[in-house]
Write a structure and sequence with these properties.
unfolded protein binding, globular, 2 domains, 236 residues, Methane Monooxygenase Hydroxylase, Chain G, domain 1
Length: 236
């Protein structure tokens, strides 16, 4: 297979040496430039983390509101139903805006030039093989479970993941694992490496839960098993 060298063409290499006066303190100048680049990278990371946390927060709030609507059902007054519907639409709109921000971040990261501070940084550290034959994977879950699975794919904390699986134990299934695999591959192909890595983390987590259940001859959808699995995981 021919090697693609195109990704090396945008490495950020300074050529300021030729522009400097021989009387200028080069080390101080390069240190200043390096510090400016580090500060810029830190600001970008703070923004990226803020968008990620906001997306996670809005996703969880939307999930809780939908679950509350399902539980309340016909007990709600017409005014409450209208207010909750408006709130759901508001959260869904905010989620779409945040998703656009995440895509812009992924595009910026994809186009960012490599430099001395990033060229040796590990990227995607896991290798996963997709068995999907097309871009879509059919998952036989209801709407609430599909939303929960999507939210699960974005979680970072064990407690958040456990809360979703305890609420929707049917997600402890090979179908959910295939869905995560597909989403991970699609995100990676589209250059959204950070998102692909987050989904891969959750895929490994769910895979371990299913494998451990098989080893213990336990039912993966049993809430007591799910709670025990995460308890052991946090104690490791």
């Amino acid at each position: 297979m021919p090697i693609d060298y195109s990704k090396w063409k945008d490495i950020e290499v300074s050529d300021d040496e030729d522009d400097l006066s021989p009387h200028f303190e080069k080390n101080a100048f390069f240190e200043m430039r390096h510090r400016e680049r580090i500060n810029r990278m830190e600001e970008e990371k703070q923004y990226d983390d803020m968008i990620e946390e906001k997306y996670k927060s809005v996703s969880m709030e939307l999930e809780k509101l939908k679950e509350q609507q399902q539980q309340d059902g016909s007990c709600e007054t017409e005014e409450e139903m209208k207010r909750n519907k408006e709130k759901v639409e508001e959260l869904q709109f905010e989620l779409k805006e945040l998703q656009l921000c995440k895509e812009e971040i992924a595009e910026r990261q994809r186009k960012a030039k490599w430099n001395v501070d990033t060229i040796s940084r590990p990227g995607f550290e896991r290798t996963c093989i997709s068995t999907a034959s097309s871009g879509e994977v059919e998952v036989d879950f209801n709407e609430a479970e599909n939303d929960a699975l999507f939210n699960f794919s974005l979680m970072h904390e064990f407690d958040d993941s456990m809360r979703i699986l305890m609420r929707y134990p049917r997600l402890c299934d090979q179908r959910a694992l295939k869905f995560l695999t597909n989403q991970m591959v699609v995100s990676g192909v589209n250059g959204m490496n950070k998102l692909a890595e987050d989904i891969a983390h959750q895929r490994v987590l769910l895979s371990c839960l299913l494998h451990n259940a098989k080893m213990k001859n336990a039912h993966p959808k049993d809430r007591s098993y799910i709670a025990e699995f995460f308890t052991c995981l946090k104690e490791c």
